[in-house]
Design brief:
GO molecular function: 7S RNA binding; endoplasmic reticulum signal peptide binding
Subunit structure: Heterodimer with SRP9; binds RNA as heterodimer. Component of a signal recognition particle (SRP) complex that consists of a 7SL RNA molecule of 300 nucleotides and six protein subunits: SRP72, SRP68, SRP54, SRP19, SRP14 and SRP9.
Strand content: 15-25%
CATH topology: Signal recognition particle alu RNA binding heterodimer, srp9/1
Order of helices and strands: EHEHEEHH
Low-confidence stretches: none
Structural class: alpha+beta
Helix content: 40-55%
CATH class: Alpha Beta
Protein name: Signal recognition particle 14 kDa protein
Shape: elongated
Largest sheet: 4 strands, mixed
Number of helices: 4
Strand order of the largest sheet: 1-4-3-2
CATH superfamily: Signal recognition particle alu RNA binding heterodimer, srp9/1
Family: Belongs to the SRP14 family.
Distance between the termini: 68 Å
Number of strands: 4
GO biological process, one term: SRP-dependent cotranslational protein targeting to membrane
Number of domains: 1
């Protein structure tokens, strides 16, 4: 797993979306993390120090995993850029065929009336 700065992370995420446009998936997870092991966190809590939590963002396709850690002040700018990237790459999704229940029941009634 490669820990990147936010801007290079967004560039690599864009590349992942472009590589998997025809076939494949990109998984993105967000998680709260202190970036410290459990023993260090307990030690900081016992001494009364404030633990600085960050947002850990991971993205993976089947071949590569990248990640970045965001502070609270960087998060809003990152979120806006991330939303732009998602909107740009949502066109590769397949439309789902929906069956309208009302049309099916009305169609069935019409067919039944025609048979009589």
């Amino acid at each position: 797993m490669v820990l990147l700065q936010p801007d290079p992370f967004l560039n690599e995420l864009t590349n992942m979306y472009e590589q998997t446009k025809e076939k494949g998936s990109v998984w993105v997870t967000l998680k709260r993390s202190s970036m410290k092991c459990k023993a260090k966190r307990k030690k900081l809590e016992n001494s009364g120090e404030i633990i600085d939590y960050r947002c850990l963002v991971r993205a993976t396709n089947s071949k590569r995993t990248i990640s970045t850690a965001l502070s609270a002040k960087d998060y809003l700018r990152f979120q806006a850029s991330y939303a732009t990237i998602l909107k740009a790459h949502m066109n590769a999704l397949k439309k789902r065929e929906r069956k309208d229940k009302k049309k099916n029941t009305e169609g069935d009634k019409k067919q039944a009336d025609l048979k009589k």
